Amino acid sequence: MDNKKVHITFSLNGSIQEINDKSRDGYDYAVNAFQIFKELSIPCGINWVGRKDNVGDFENLIKFAEENGVKWINVISNKLSCGEIKSAMAYEDFACNKACVLRKEIEDEEHY
Known about the structure:
four-stranded mixed sheet, 4 strands, alpha/beta, TIM Barrel
């Protein structure tokens, strides 16, 4: 992988455990990873799956990212699998929300 950049991301769907747990486990693991990477000055990001049950928390997720040294947030659309709650978002769900940001660069790209 000579001269290739590797971007490390951790999945997190909410700024607090209660919101994250609606769609995935591992909140404590992700928070711990962010703290370790911050201490080691290793840039990392969040993969956030936008859903109707967490879109209102996106601004808080951005604050969480800033406080925990996270360098970027990748926004991913929820795609349904068999047996999942239908919570995929439409354009209108984002358009009505002040948190309508598809990728939030917290620091200049030159830092990673």
